[in-house]
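Researcher: Go.
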Amino acid sequence: MPKAIWNGVVLAESEQTEHMEGNHYFPPDSVNWDVVKKSDTNTTCFWKGQANYYHIEVDGKVNQDAAWVYSEPSEAATRIKDHVALWRGVKVEN
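Model: Structure:
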């Protein structure tokens, strides 16, 4: 089962991830929202739409903009709506 880990803490774990462009997108109910916090950062992907970013805060350490979500994805990316993808040192194990 895919599991995202950073600084020894499980950030998300689910058998229902969506895999797109080399990333696992975790359903929102599988995310540890106690350590995943909203950021002010946004970017736009030409085919998926606008991504909203999140920081990860664990044991006083912050991994800035290490997660992102497409809350209103394009029609081509609707299967990742509200799902969370992670990077910047976050390990996703299967």
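Model: The chain has no helices and nine strands.
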